[in-house]
Amino acid sequence: MEAVDDLDLQSLDKLELPADLMELNMGPAHPATHGTVRLKLKLDGERVAAIDIQPGYLHRGFEKSCERGTWNQVFPYVDRLNYVSPMLNNVGFALAVEGLCGVTVPERCQYYRVVLGELARITDHMTCNAATAMELGAFTPFLWLMKVRDWIYDVLEIETGARLTHSFGRIGGMAAPPTPDLKANVRRVLPEVLKVVGETETLLLRNRIFLDRVEGTGVLTQAEALDYGVTGPVLRSTGIDYDVRKAEPYLVYDRFDFDVPVGSRGDNYDRFLVRLEETRQSVRILEQALAQMPDDGPINVDDPRLILPEKSAVYTTIEATIAHFKLVMEGVKVPRGEYYSATEGGNGELGFFIVSDGSGTPYRVRVRPPCWYGLQAGARMFAGGMLADIIPTFGSINMIGGECDR
Amino acid sequence: MTLLNETALRARLGEHVLSVAEFGGQCAAVVEAASWLDVARALREGTPAFDHFIDLTAVDYPEADPALRVEVVLFLRASATGERVRIKTRCPADGPLASLTSLWRGANWAERELYDLFGVRFSGHPDLRRILLYEPFEGHPLRKDYPIERTQPIVEYRDVPGVTKLAPFGAEEGQPFGRVDWAARLAGRDLQVSPSIALQAQQRRALSESTAGHAEAAQEAVSTAAKQPEQGAATAAAREVGHGSR
């Protein structure tokens, strides 16, 4: 290497800075992107000139795996799609199969599903917002939101026995009836949710650093969002008020008074605010659902073709033993046909397209993962922006590897 | 869900509609593969415009006519009215089918995924490469004849003398749990047919009609296995016997 003293200073003006684009790999295991995804970037200085998003690192063959068991054995798999709000996946899949079977669960079960689902939605939005803030350097709101999220997980654990992978949905009902303390437990945690959402606002929304990073970055227009198939908070941040709970109410969502918050610019700031406000709306829904939910009544449909008989009957009567045996060995027989059910997941429209050949095994289970389309639109949001803006934008897309890569 | 019904589908798409499939109150228009792009354009540009891309997926029917093996299903939504529409078509397992990327940018990844997992090629796609799996991956796993037990390790399993830490399962093992052995079914020697399907297809008598049904089936499997010289087929048949005699 040439010593500095020997440099010919006269020829320095002939030096050219490299004009080629620089290639940079982000991921698949980047410390600031939650979820394994590889971003292959071409950088012009600090600007992103071209981007190739490569998902698939968490692909484990969800759809293929579903084709080898019974319909009820799919529930543990759907837990692991969006593992931040597994209860919403449980409910979504159960509704799809029940739609094809033509059954409707009892009213108490519908309220129960709403309550558990909205708790899951709160945890989902809280996690997303907390992670976005943390990746921008705000660690305190992350810890505070995680603290309350864990209290919600405590409620879910009391109900289902598991914090994250509940596997609690069943075709035609739920695995267990609500505990007697359900309403008291949820009512105890809701004020804490509202409190921490308010605290997050006061911590972040007047913070110059946070605002500079999220305002005007990662912009997506309405037409682009629709074109890319984006749903959920990312779509609503552009100003389109499409929420499956409101547009095509399922369960008992048409009985609740709640608003669909929308943004106006489709940037990271709007997405952050939409999720914060949706947390508040979920609390509103929960309060109404708890007030309306019957305290007694059946949870499961009264249909021996779908629901396992009581354990005590299995041990004492031959009919229940046979029914139990057939349901476990052959599975629930879902009529031949195809069905698409759309529910509002944490990230948007969670669709299950199921095909049955009339046997006890799914012929095809297709999940429409909302963040798959959000991540695809990410290419549009990242391109042209600064390299550092990828972090908040990626955070607010809320790509969940389990759901995106399946 | 406000899904277009048969009348609306025929009014909107006219002679393109071959038939309308209805299950559980949900209608889907079946169209020719040749008119796939025209139908999609008519939906994209007509009124109301189905501008919200929802999903594109496929279902494999290996027992169907090879030219109509894969059913591709498109889901759309009109943002102005909230109406939904579903259209589907049949194409050979390798395609080709016209790409919809010129109409909805969201179709890009969906088509790449179908190419990756089903092997359907989309003509006119700007960047058709695998998306979930890796490039050297052989085959298309969501096809029914792709065995779920098959493993394709990127890094080969270690076979070093003296090393006790081995991979949990070998290349030919994996998880033998499965209800339908599609390779066997397509080869015409499947005994794992779900009882209700077998009844519908008249492959098996109901147990109430013949108590010897299972015994006969198991006997048949043993004789098939005896004829097969390959080790793999014999073990597969032995597994079938296990299921059949359950």
Polypeptide structure, described:
The complex is a heterodimer of chains A (406) and B (246). Chain A has 406 residues and is mainly α. Chain A has one domain (58-405): Cytochrome-c3 Hydrogenase, chain B, CATH 1.10.645. Chain A has helices spanning 62-66, 75-79, 86-101, 107-135, 139-160, 182-204, 208-214, 222-227, 232-236, 244-247, 268-292, 311-316, 318-329, 370-382, 390-397, 401-405; strands at residues 22-26, 38-44, 47-54, 169-170, 173-174, 337-344, 349-356, 362-368. Chain A has a three-stranded antiparallel sheet with strand order 1-2-3. In chain A, strands 6-7-8 form a three-stranded antiparallel sheet. In chain A, strands 4-5 form a two-stranded antiparallel sheet. In chain A, β7 (349-356) and β8 form a beta hairpin. In chain A, 54% of the residues are buried. In chain B, α3 (107-118) links the parallel β6 and β7. Chain B is of the alpha/beta class and 246 residues long. The two termini of chain B are 43 Å apart. Classes of the chains: A mainly alpha (406), B alpha/beta (246). At the A-B interface, α1, α8, β6, β7 and β8 of A face β3, α3 and α5 of B.
Provide a short characterization of the protein structure.
Chain A has 406 residues and is mostly helical. Chain A has helices at 62-66, 75-79, 86-101, 107-135, 139-160, 182-204, 208-214, 222-227, 232-236, 244-247, 268-292, 311-316, 318-329, 370-382, 390-397, 401-405; strands spanning 22-26, 38-44, 47-54, 169-170, 173-174, 337-344, 349-356, 362-368.
